[in-house]
Amino acid sequence: MIIDCHGHYTTAPKALDEWRARQVAAINNPSAAPQLSELKISDDEIRETLEKNQLRLMRERGSDLTIFSPRASFMAHHIGDFQVSSTWAAICNELCYRVSQLYPDNFVPAAMLPQSTGVDTASCIPELERCVNEYGNVALNLNPDPSGGHWNSPPLTDRYWYPIYEKMVEYDIPAMIHVSTSCNACFHTTGAHYINADTTAIMQLIEGDLFRDFPSLRFVIPHGGGAAPYHWGRYRGLALGMKKPLLSEHLLKNVYFDTCVYHQAGIDLLTRVIPVDNILFASEMVGAVRGIDPESGFEFDDTKRYIETAAINPEQRDKIYEGNARRVYPRLDALLKKKGK
Ligand SMILES: [Zn+2]
Predict the structure, then answer these.
(1) What is the average per-residue pLDDT within 160-179?
(2) How far is CA 332 from CA 105, 172, 225, 317, 336, in A?
(3) What spacing in Å lies between the alpha carbon of 191 and ligand 1's midpoint?
(4) Per residue in 261-308, pLDDT tens?
(5) What is the torsional sign of CA 296, 301, 304, 309?
(6) Which of these CATH numbers, 3.20.20.70, 3.40.50.720, 3.20.20.140, 3.30.2130.10, describes 3-338?
(7) Residue 29 CA, ligand 1 centroid: distance in Å
(8) What is the mean pLDDT of the chain?
C-alpha cells in the first residue's frame, strides 16, 4: 500500500474561492459578509474536481491513499481576525471531510486550524476536537507563522503553542508544520516561504527542548525538510555547540520528513542523510510545482519515480510508502486495520 501523507484540496470547486473572496471583501463591513448557507457545493462537483485531478494522478502513478487537508496557501491566517479564520477553517475542514466520505478508501482528512496572529492557540482547540471526533481527522497542519511571512509569533518551542501540543498528545495525532501564503514580497510563497519555514522549524526544535516536555509529540516537516537535510552537518554541529544531545536523540524520535523534493538527486540526498525510518512518502499534488521536467520527461511532483529509483532496499521502500506512516499516524493505522488492511 502507498500512502501519500501530503495532499491538499487545491482543486476545490470555484464556489469556495468566490465565497472566500466575499468573506475577505467584507472584513471591514461585516454586514456584507456572506452567509455560510450561501456556499453551495454538490457531491458531484467534488467528485468532478477529484476524478479529473488528484484521483486520476493517484491511479496513474499508483498511490492508494492521501492524507488530505485544505489548500495550504489559502489558509491565509493573516487575513482578518480569529472569527474570520474560524469560519474559513470550519468550511475548508468540512469540505475535506466530505471528500473523505465520498472516497473513504482514497482520502483521509487532516485539519486546518483557525489560527490568527497574536491569538491564544487554545482558541484552535474546539475546531481540532470537531475535526478529530466528528470528521475522523488523523493529523493537523500547524502554521508556525500565521502572519504570512513576517514571523512575529514565538518559536514552536514556546509555551504559546502548548495548548495545541497537549491536544495532539491526547489524541495521538501528528502535525505537519506548514505555512500558508506569503504576504511579504521578499518571500515567494512556495519557492521561499515554504522552504524557509521548514528549515526554520528544524532550527527552532534544535534550539529548544520541546520533546523533553512532550516525548510523544510528532511533527512532519514537509518539502523534504526544507534545507535541513542538505545542511545536516551544519545542524549537527550547531546542536553540539549548544550542548544538545545528538540529533538522532534530540530530533529524530519526533521529527519526520516527507518526500516532496522534486528531483532524483534531492531524494537520493534525503535517503542518504536522513534515516529511512524518518521519511514519509508524499507528493503534495496537485500543488506547488506543476508541469513536466524537461530533464526527466515526467511531472516534477511524480515523486514515486524517485523513490523507486533511490538506492534503498525493498524493505526500506515499504517503510517510506506505508510502514512509517502507520507509525506516525496511529489513527490512520487504526482506520486501515478496521478495514482489514
Ligand atoms: Zn503542502
Answers:
(1) 98
(2) 11, 11, 22, 19, 6
(3) 12
(4) 999 999 999 999 999 999 999 999 998 899 999 999 999 999 999 999
(5) positive
(6) 3.20.20.140
(7) 32
(8) 97
Question: Is 284 noted as a catalytic residue in this protein?
Answer: yes
pTM assigned to the model = 0.98
The rounded Å distance from CA 281 to ligand 1 centre is 13
Task: Convert the pLDDT of each residue in 179-217 to its tens digit.
Answer: 999 999 999 999 999 999 999 999 999 999 999 999 999
Domain segments of the chain as ranges: 3-338
- Which residue in 45, 94, 129, 284 is the catalytic one? 284
Please, which residues bridge with residue 177 across strands?
142
Measured between alpha carbons, how far apart are the two ends of the chain, in Å? 9
Q: Which residues contact 36 (CB under 8 A, 6 or more apart)?
A: 87, 91
Tell me the CA–centroid distance for residue 68 and ligand 1, in Å: 10
Q: How far is the CA of 299 from the centre of ligand 1 (A)?
A: 17
pLDDT for residue 287: 82
Q: What confidence score (pLDDT) does residue 22 get?
A: 97
* Cis check: omega of the bond before 24, within 30 degrees of 0: no
Distance from Cα 104 to the centre of ligand 1, integer Å: 21
211-223 pLDDT per residue, tens? 999 999 999 999 9
